[in-house]
Design goal:
The protein has 196 residues and is an all-alpha fold. The protein has eleven helices and no strands. It is elongated and about 55 Å long.
Length: 196
């Protein structure tokens, strides 16, 4: 299959950058340039095509760049999306702390970015099942942050149920979270409360 003009150069450039980036984050000007080359910043219609080239570099992005790339990552095919999220989660240090990633997945304007709700749910599940990264402390911190978000994100209750299922020791903590949500009127929001 023929490659689009510039793809070979982009691939070679990214390979060289990957080797030099192993020591930490990329200089801002370099990562910003790469985001422009792949069509992510400024956003382009076909940005999800370019993000596949960025997967090896995800651990080296800044927090704001990781947030900008997240919708593109979630639009990738499932296997590629999982690989990209794993790279973000297992980076040392990660561009987004685990609890920040959990919150970002919930506050993402997925419809606005053309991301399927199912892709967001799968990403949240992947995070919660990655126990080496999403410890009890990280999940509880993330849940507490979600309770404070206005409006309450659509997947919050689902995530709470998943968290209790995968980390049963969180039950006492979750009771406090539910009290706070009830005080905020979550019971009057049928789409949030369904299934709980």
């Amino acid at each position: 299959a023929a490659t689009a003009p510039g793809q070979d150069l982009l691939h070679l450039s990214l390979s060289v950058v990957c080797e030099s980036a192993r020591a930490g984050t990329l200089p801002d000007h370099l990562s910003a340039g790469l985001l422009r080359l792949t069509g992510i910043e400024p956003p382009s219609i076909d940005g999800s095509l370019g993000v596949a080239y960025l997967v090896p570099l995800l651990p080296h992005l800044s927090a704001s760049q990781a947030r900008a790339v997240l919708p593109h990552v979630l639009r990738l095919p499932q296997a590629e999306s999982r690989e990209a999220l794993a790279r973000l989660m297992h980076a040392e240090p990660p561009p987004l702390r685990p609890e920040e990633l959990l919150v970002e997945l919930h506050v993402l304007a997925y419809e606005e970015h053309g991301v399927a709700l199912k892709a967001v749910m799968e990403a949240v599940s992947l995070c919660l099942n990655e126990r080496s990264v999403f410890s009890e402390v990280c999940v509880s911190t993330g849940l507490m942050s979600l309770v404070e978000v206005e409006p309450i994100p659509k997947l919050t209750m689902r995530t709470i149920m998943q968290a209790v299922s995968s980390l049963p020791t969180l039950r006492p903590f979750v009771m406090d979270v539910l009290r706070r949500l009830l005080q905020r009127g979550v019971a009057q929001a049928p789409k949030l409360w369904e299934g709980f």
